[in-house]
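Q&A log
Question type: sequence-to-structure
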Amino acid sequence: MLLVGAKLFDGTGKPVVEDTAIEVVDGRIGRVGKRADFGRAPAGEILDVAGKFVLPGLINMHEHLIFKYATGSPVTWNARSAPELTIHAVSTAAITLAQGITLSRDMGTAHEVALYMRDAIAAGDVPGPRIIACNRAVRITGGHATLGLEADGADGWRRAARLQLKAGATSSR
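Response status: OK
Response body:
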């Protein structure tokens, strides 16, 4: 497939490139450049996207798939069942991707929903951005994240972090 006519914003500080061509091969971007540099259009589908902008995927570094777009208290949402929260997260992930967010870091979840979402999206079973899943948040005793694990002191925080990694939280390694 060849997308033609878009304005390309690459986020590097370079000026916007007008009248581009973007080659898509097997669902992935192959080549990008000025339409004139592509010569004759290859055989296949040509889609005119004149007047549209193309830009790199956006990143959301603080997300909660189970709470985004939810109404009411996080405490109330946290009390919902795993299936209810998962259904909400599936919808949220699809909307997030449609907004152009291609990577999202889920900073706290209940029932390990973010871990399941990460894996389902990676397997292609659910549409959504790539997920970095922290699993349950960690907080000091009486602290903010109501759905989190309580931990105090260096040993408590280490234990809580190790529990999250053991459960399958995304490691930075």
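Response note: The CA atoms of residues 54 and 161 lie 39 Å apart.
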